[in-house]
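PROTEIN–LIGAND DATA SHEET

This sheet pairs a single protein chain with one bound small molecule, zinc ion, given as SMILES. Inputs appear in the order they were entered. The predicted three-dimensional arrangement of chain and ligand is reported afterwards as a token string under its own label.
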Amino acid sequence: MNNDTQRDSQRIVAQSPASGPKPGPARAIALGAAAVAASLFAVVAAFGTVQDSGIPLTTLSIEQQLSPTIEPVSDDSALPYFNEERFQRGDTVATLLDRLGVDDADTRRLMAQPQAAAQFRWLRTGTSVQARTSPEGNLLDLWFVTPFDKLVKIQPRDGSFTAEQQPASLTAEVMMKSGEIRSSLFAATDNANVPDTVAVQLADVFAGDVDFHRDLRKGDRFTVVYEMMSHQGRMVRSGRLLAAEFINQKRVLRAVWFQDEGTKGGYYTPEGKNLRKAFLRSPLEFSRVTSGFAMRFHPLLQKWRAHKGVDYGAPPGTRVKVTGDGVVELAGRQDGYGNVITVRHNSGLTTWYAHLSGFAAGIRKGTRVSQGDVIGYVGQTGWATGPHLHYEFRVNNEHRNPLTIALPAAEPLGAGRVTIFRSITATLVARLDMLRDTNLALLE
Ligand SMILES: [Zn+2]
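PREDICTION REPORTED AS:
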């Protein structure tokens, strides 16, 4: 569907956001004079694609409600050109204006002024920027959505320009993707065109069950159902992960998002069991960087039995999270441990975080901490051959292997809420089922 010829306005409306950012030269599209204020549903379209790597992927776009409102053009004789570009790594405002087809020197000078720079500082890699230019290449107006969901609109006017910021009206679309892990989670999510923020949410949701730094295996599979926020049919950012399936070493884990009255909301199994556990499986922040680092560090690691802790190779400065609610017992220096934090939890449990480069602000003896709080940063203080986190889990001061210990679960859904939970989450579960069936069909 991506040809570079001129399209009429209906064609623009029908462009599926699922097609993603379009690389290549700037497209110039002349808009018709009539305002387009259509709202249409692109009905469920399931299609499987087999990528060059041979990894089967499935992409489904459901209920894409596109409501673009494009302002009418007053002068039919000088139809503006409509251009859209993504801000790319290494881009400057000048290179972006080049690609947007802005040719006039006056505008380019204006856009280099500090007042304009103040607006453009909200551009991020991947931000979609749209502009209208006259046939001569004069900028008529330009707009984009900031990471904080503000619509910035810039309009040159009589040797100056106006800049407005207003809340962008975003539409949530539901995206469904799945993939198989061959080397790393991020390689797999890249292949499936899943945003990093969704990959990290996936790891967070199952953080009580899976140590994403150690437990992943080739052949693990995932399915994610998530919101994608769009503005006038253009994807702006990913939203919340709504449902997920993760098959880790043949163990099937499923999660659906549910917000009960008066609660912050959370993730549950389709049966209504809370996925939040009293402890996270891994104390290390999961990111693109840390996910690749462990493998490189691995040859230096010792066996758990030898030194009664688990070592996580990670770049210096990586954030360390406390794995359960508790109170800091020690934040200081101790022989081989270097900079170490110990946290006391309920039931005689303590956790230890060693070789830190430093402590997070406010972390000292007596500080109350909640699961997932950042308490320190990876370093190599004490007896450490490289930057890594040494993590211990003790029960009544006896070492336990945190990789294998059974961890207590958080409180379940109230008995009276399960029926409501099931009725609300049924569609999400159905989507997971649908993706799984589609995948099976593709694999056969
Ligand atoms: Zn260690």
